[in-house]
Amino acid sequence: MKTKEGIEGVVQVNLTELQNSDAAGLKPAVKQDPCLPQAGFNSPVGFEMLQRAAKMLSSGTIFPERFRNNIGDCAIVADIALRLSASPLFVAQNLYVVYGSPAWSSKFLIGLWNSCGRYSAIRYEFLGTEGQDDWGCIAKSKEWATGEELVGPLVTLSLAKKEGWFEKRGSKWQTMPALMLRYRAATFLINTVAPELGMGIRTVEEAEDIGE
Q1: CB within 8 Å of 201: residues ≥ 6 apart
Q2: Do the beta carbons of residue 122 and residue 113 sit within 8 Å?
Q3: What does pTM read for this prediction?
Q4: 200: CB partners within 8 A, 6+ apart
């Protein structure tokens, strides 16, 4: 287990699981024989295998409570885990249901980027006056293959207010603006450069800001 320091605390990332993730740009630890039946939605046999896995996962007490006794959601978790070549428990710990849709935790998405081996770890640059509308953050990284510096869009408190994120009830933009600026800046960078890492799934913060 490795930790990433942030201004609001420590973000924990399971690097062992990430390094075994095909979506992270690395080869899976074990290659499956394409001639053998694969669990998933692509065939009746695969669907049966997926259902059996989902039933087992939904009955486990170690699985996150939000997925217990919910075979349908556990089947989705199992399918995503297979696509990422990751542990179903690892996926379930970082996948949430917000307004009826799946959403990743931001630290999970950042962890995928930092550990995929294609880019340097994300760094953050703050601009403007802290606490004022012009206060903003840019996420930066470097692509190892080309040496190109990657710079994401600027995210400011002014943008958060104009988009309606800041004033939402229970919004963390009001209580933890520095962390939210980092999360949103990193998400913008990842979504514009390597959207395949998140499989098109929004982060929890994005889903909560957008609302129903």
Answers
A1: 95, 102, 103, 104
A2: yes
A3: 0.73
A4: none
Residues 39, 50: contact at Cβ < 8 Å? Answer: yes
Query: For the chain, first and last CA: distance in Å?
Result: 35
Residue 95, SS3? strand
Please tell me which residue, 16 or 129, carries the higher pLDDT value: 129
Distance CA 82, CA 74 (A): 12
Tokens found for residue 37: 């039946």
Res. 15 pLDDT band, cuts 50 70 90: very low
Max Cα–Cα distance, the chain, nearest Å: 59
The residue count of the chain comes to 212
Place of tokens 């980092």: 182
DSSP string covering 6-36, please?
ETTEEEEE-HHHHHT-GGGTS--SSPPPTTS
Which DSSP state fits 170? T
Between CA 129 and CA 179 the distance in angstroms is 16
Rg over CA atoms, the chain: 19
